Amino acid sequence: MQRLGLPVPLGGTSNHFRTDLLRRIGAWDPYNVTEDADLGIRIARAGLTTATLDSTTWEEVPASLGNWMTQRTRWIKGWMQTYLVHTREPVRLLRDLGPRRWAGLHVLMGGILLSVLMHPLCYLLLAYDAANGRLFEEPGGHVQYWFWWVAAFNLGVGYASAMIVGALAVARRGRADLAVHALFMPVYWLLISFAGYRALFQLVQKPYLWEKTEHGARLRRR
What's the Rg (C-alpha) of the chain? Predict the structure, then answer.
């Protein structure tokens, strides 16, 4: 994203800013529950750039599923807030970012939010077709035939490439023993979708609720 010059939704750790520029663009939004992501978009809209350092951030992951779920809910809800805020004036957003970065924002942030919400619906449609015996029925024509194969190829390559990247990532950090866990990514994505729908509900009912992530579990166990 840095090499392509795209807007970078910042993460919550190891960020370093020039104070004068941070103040100039309004610093953090106190109402956004992922204020770092929102700040990354505003940095891009102000014509500034974000650089990435090749380093490691040592942050403890959530130690329980419940803690993880509340964290992911807050992250997704904050991305929803950020995307809605910055797209409410689409012409101005296009003018600020330019066509390439504007498209990058929609593909990254909008695309991820859409996929989080649509992913379980795809499973439901597959289950419905399987229950009705239509999952592997003969396509009705050439267009449907090619569409079926394109969809099957996209599904297979999409899942496989994500798992391979995950396995390579841990292997390159000297933890090849963790690579097998990449096979559970489809389960992980369904949990992400559950957090996404939880975030959507909160966006309507409790938009400013900040569910704190518990940290320090490893220290307490010691």
Answer: 20
Which candidate, 23, 58, 61, places its Cα nearest to that of 43?
23
Spell out the domain ranges in the chain: 19-55+65-213
Cβ-proximal residues to 99 (8 Å cutoff; 6+ apart), any chain: none
* CB-based contact 73:67 (threshold 8 Å): no
**Given this model, what pLDDT does residue 155 score?**
87
Query: Residue 144 corresponds to which amino acid?
Result: Q
Residues whose CB is less than 8 angstroms from the CB of residue 177 and which lie 6 or more positions away in sequence, other chains included: none
Helix, strand or coil for residue 58? coil
The pair of three-digit structure tokens given for residue 147, joined into one six-digit string: 């569409």
Task: Tell me the two tokens of residue 57.
Answer: 């951030």
Q: What is the pLDDT of residue 220?
A: 62
For the chain, give the mean pLDDT: 90
Local structure of 189: helix, strand or coil: helix
Contacts of 106 (CB under 8 A, 6+ apart): 87
Q: Let me know: does 73 contact 198? Beta carbons within 8 Å.
A: yes
At 221, is the pLDDT very low, low, confident or very high (cuts 50, 70, 90)?
Answer: low
What pTM did the predictor assign?
Answer: 0.88
Distance CA 73, CA 80 (A): 11
Distance CA 21, CA 38 (A): 15
Which of 44, 26, 45 lies closest to 35 in space, CA to CA? 26
DSSP for 129-164 reads HHHTT-TTPPPSSHHHHHHHHHHHHHHHHHHHHHHH
